[in-house]
Model the fold of this input.
Amino acid sequence: MIVSTYEALLRLRNGEVIGLPTETVYGLAGRIDNEVSIRQIFSLKERPFFDPLIVHVSGLEAAMGLVSEWPDLAQILAEKFWPGPLTLVLPKNNNINPLITSGLETVALRWPAHPVAQELLVKLGVPLAAPSANKFGRTSPTRAEHVEQEFRSAEIPIVDGGPCSVGLESTVVLIENKNELAILREGVISLSEIESHLKRKKFEYLLLQKIDSEKSPGHLKHHYMPAIPLIYILGRQPITQSMTQLWSAEFKKLDSHVEGVRLLKPRKIESWTELRLSDNAVLAARELYNSMRESASSRKDVILFFEEPHMQTEAWIPILNRLQKAASMKF
Ligand code: TXA
Ligand code: MG
Done:
C-alpha cells in the first residue's frame, strides 16, 4: 500500500515496518530500537537470523553513535562517499541489538542519498535497519511496485520514491584494525575508486581479500533469483537442441536447495527469453532488477543471459556478480 512520507513517518514512530526508497534498492525498514520491528523484518523476508541487517543513519555523527571505534579510514571514506551507495562495517557498540548484527561484533552502516530516506531518518531521529525489500534469495526491488508485488498479502506501507537511480545494492566495505579494509560485496563504488581516493589522501592501508568469507555472512552462492530459472552463458552462442538437452540434464543433477536458498529448475526447456541490458554499465545497473522481473513474467521456461566481451570492464563487475548469483546455472 503506497503511503505519503508523512504517513510513513507516523508508522515508523509507531514501531511499524515500511517499504523505504533508497538510491540503491528499496529497503524494508524498521527502527533499530524496536525489537518487534526487527523480528518482523526477518519474518516478512523469510530471512534466516544468521544474515545481519544494514543500519541506515542520518549522517556521520549518527554513525559514530553506533560504533565502538571510528577510525580515520572510516572518516575518509564516509566524507568522500556518503551520502551514497557505500556501507561500512565497523566494531559495534551496545546501542545495537544483536538481532540486527546476527550476534556479530560488527555493524554495517550506510547514510543513503535518497531524499525520502534522508527525510525519514532526520525526522524520526532513530536509525533504521533495512535489508533490501525482497524475499530471501530473490530479486531486489528498484521500484515501489516491486515491493508491493513481493509482500502483496502483508500490506506493507511503502513510500513511492520513484525508480532507484543506482539500481544495485551498496558496496560493502569491512574496516578492521584501523587501516585494513576488505570489500565484502561489490557495488557501483568500485575498489579502484576507493583505492585512488585513499592514495590521494596519502592514507596507508592494507587491502584484504574477504569476499565470500565468513566475514560476509550474506554472501551466499545464490541470491537475487528471479521467479523463473536464469541460465548464465559465457559468450554469445546460438541455442541448439543439444544445448537445451544438456542444460536439462545438468538441471536434474542440481540440489533443490543451496545454503538454504531454493534453487529454481525448469520442468522442460522448450522456450526462453533473453535478458538484454544496455551497453552502458550505469544504465544496465539501473535497469537490471526491473529487466529481471520483466523477463520472469514472460512465462517462458528459462531466462538466458549472455556475458559479452564489452562487459570485461570494472563497471560491469557488480552487475555480473548479481547475475551469476541469480543464475540457477552457468555455462
Ligand atoms: O544498498 C543497500 O545496501 C540496500 C539498501 C536498502 O540500503 N540494503 C541491502 O541490504 O542490500 P541486504 O540486507 O539485502 O544486504 C546486506 C548485506 C548482506 O550481505 C549482509 O550479510 C551484509 O550486508 N552485512 C550486514 N551486516 C554485516 C556485518 N556486520 N558484517 C558483515 N556483513 C554484513
Ligand atoms: Mg538483499
The mean pLDDT is 94.
